Amino acid sequence: MQDDGERETVAYRPRLQEPVGDGRPSTEGDVRWLVRALADLGRWPRAATERCYVCCDLRDAVQRYQRNRGLCCDGLLVPGGETERTMLVELVRLGSAAAG
Questions:
Q1: pLDDT tens over the chain, length 100 residues
Q2: What is the pLDDT of residue 68?
Q3: What was the pLDDT predicted at 93?
Q4: How many helices (H) and strands (E) does the chain have?
């Protein structure tokens, strides 16, 4: 079993390769990670986890998440940025596969 120090190290390793958001060069893998992460956090419908592109609904889901967490509400995730880090901490606490 990992101690808290090890879990935090794992939580802060960026999962995104490129920024994800409107007008950004979002990779398919990054968008798939984002929708799986949002679904695990109860913020995206499980039936739509095969999405591989950014749309208005995805941007809006990210903005709602950011607003609810008191983060910069721009609908954008960057590798290692505050939104990705906050999501990763929650995903680790939930034991989500998206955290690993």
A1: 444 444 444 446 889 999 998 888 889 999 999 999 999 999 999 888 887 889 899 999 999 999 999 999 999 999 999 999 999 999 999 999 988 8
A2: 97
A3: 93
A4: 4, 0
User: Which stretch of DSSP H or E encloses residue 59?
Assistant: helix 56-68
Domain limits, the chain: 4-99
Place of tokens 């749309």: 55
Contact 82, 16 (CB under 8 A): no
Q: How far apart are CA 28 and CA 22, in angstroms?
A: 14
CATH numeric code, 4-99:
1.10.101
Answer for the pair 78, 100: CB distance below 8 angstroms, yes or no: no
Distance between CA atoms of residues 44 and 25, nearest Å: 22
Greatest alpha-carbon span in the chain: 41
Q: Can you tell me the distance from the alpha carbon of 15 to that of 40, in angstroms, rounded to the nearest whole number?
A: 15
